[in-house]
What does this fold into?
Amino acid sequence: MTKRILGNLVFAPLAALTLTACASTSAPTATDEPGIKDVFGDRFLVGTAVNVNQMNGTDTAGADVVKRHFNAIVAENCMKSEEIHPEKDRYNWTDADRLVSFGEENGITVTGHCLIWHSQLAPWFAVDDAGNPVSADTLRQRMKDHIYTVVGRYKGKIKGWDVVNEAILEDGSYRHSPFYEILGEEFIPLAFQYAHEADPDAELYINDYAMNMPAKRDRYVALVNDLKARGLRVDAIGMQGHMGMDYPELDEFEKSIEAFASTGCDVMITEWDMSALPTLNRGANVGDHVDYAKELNPYPDGLPEDVAAEWNRRMTDFFELFLKHSDKISRVTLWGVSDGDSWKNDWPMKGRKEYPLIFDRNHEMKPFMQQLIEKYKS
Ligand code: G3I
It folds into this structure.
């Protein structure tokens, strides 16, 4: 298990010591309070997805929250193929370089998201100039070129990569992505092979949402065991953790944590958020949409107290579950810094206002995490 991060073990007590040393004699102020990473960073990496505005100086409030509370970051979008490799012979490194530099300058672990994914796929990637699917050989070469170039550029700077994202459907069948249509199931081992060749020291992850679903769980256990049986490196299985008020059930999520850990891989919670609104869609496919209806945006001016209380209770239950299994879980990453940043706003309906993250639109920490810090800080 590669999960113990010495840096965090050393960092956390030092941070606590520093805080104590510099704390004024008066009552502790908000800045004297330990950050999330100070309290939980020695159990697993505590991360967040970051957007380009937090990395380019536009959203300094968000960047400050990242520096204070998280010891891991992942690109929400800028490392996806449509962004980083928009044309066959052109890469766009600007935002990805800025993110990696931010991590290096602030001592924050960087993970890469994501190398092979059907969504936000560069439009040229799997088709020829006439728009027809390319041959298997051509797609293999394009995957290899993309992965070698992107992973190779950040060799030694990015701890690990979401190599393949969302390859399996809820019923356990393979998603019929262009990669699957052209290469069959082999696109997955190929992606892991290329990533390992590009950076032998990088951790390699497979990642998906709705990983509490039994059929999906079983398929990933079999898939990862097969990859390992082939001698391929797979370090972790990423459970995205996009949740709502009525899904997933805690016990099914826990069964998946245990099943994935049985493969010998770490488990990661890679994109945690929890919708506070009545569920419209249990998936995470940003392409899903429903027509506007006023009643589908029930809380435009903030959550009612009872809803907020239930949301905080449910977030506590899941974070306590992650702590219970911190021997298996090597990273817990939130999919965004503050509520205003979340992809869940306007999803699956434009005009829908969400409240799914740890920090609210004023970058204030929500009660559940304040209470957890109070409970677990040494
Ligand atoms: O960058 C363009 C901008 O130039 C343009 O003006 C604007 C309006 O069209 O669109 C911008 O691109 C958007 C991009 O986010 C950056 O903001 C895309 O339209 C939009 O589709 C994209 O959404 C992202 C989504 O993945 C796309 O699939 C979300 O921010 C991101 O949170 C979401 O994250 C995914 C994970 O990668 C994988 N797991 C599911 C998760 C949620 O869908």
